[in-house]
Amino acid sequence: MHDPFTGAVAMNPPSIEIRSMRREDWPSVRAIYEQGIVTGDATFQWEAPTWEEWDAGHLRQCRLVADDGGVSGWAALSGFSSRAVYAGVAEVSIYVAAAARGRGVGRRLLEALVLESERHGFWTLQAGNFPENRSSVALHQRCGFRVVGVREKLGQMNGRWRDVLFLERRSTTVGIAEPG
Length: 180
Fold this sequence. Notes:
Layout: E1 17-20, H1 26-39, H2 51-57, E2 63-67, E3 71-79, E4 89-96, H3 105-119, E5 124-129, H4 134-142, E6 146-157, E7 160-170
Parallel strand pairs: 4-5
Antiparallel strand pairs: 1-2, 2-3, 3-4, 5-7, 6-7
């Protein structure tokens, strides 16, 4: 399969469907989120939210899961700002089940999320990653994100200050014309 981001031949894990997230996926989505929390390098969160909290914090469009007979990963967007000028900017969340890591699930999800975001008019996607989460940083970079800065000592975890790499991806199809 041709990779729309690099032009290379993309790894295509067999029998993985990328589809819209459904309410009934929440137990699996939550479990995968909890696996990320346990690593200590995925989020500042200490526990997964309730469905109601998660649902309120993420945009209704652009919620995806990787399904290979069960949910093996998920990706979603959160709003950046309520100001109209930032309507095309969103923050990425992406998590892959421990058993599915290294199989291309994250790449398939993030590529699909980028395409879905563009269908919904988003011109900038941003992500924050702990520098220690090298696989997530590399995944974002393979999908067209670039590191734009380091937010030093952004927050504390277990009594230790943590830096966060700030990455962004500008669409090459949405928001490229000068306002007019």
